[in-house]
Specification:
This protein has three helices and no strands. By secondary structure, the chain is mostly helical.
């Protein structure tokens, strides 16, 4: 489980979109399928 958490955090840190905090990006990814898709596939 920790591995998935680390991968997700790494994807969020590499995201070059709007300069929100990591916590707000995590919340946005939890609620928005489009944002999750953007994080995963670039």
């Amino acid at each position: 489980m920790a591995l998935f958490n680390r991968v997700a955090l790494s994807l969020i840190k590499q995201h070059k979109g709007k300069q929100d905090s990591i916590a707000s990006k995590r919340r946005k990814a939890a609620w928005s399928a489009d944002f999750r898709r953007q994080l995963i596939f670039g």
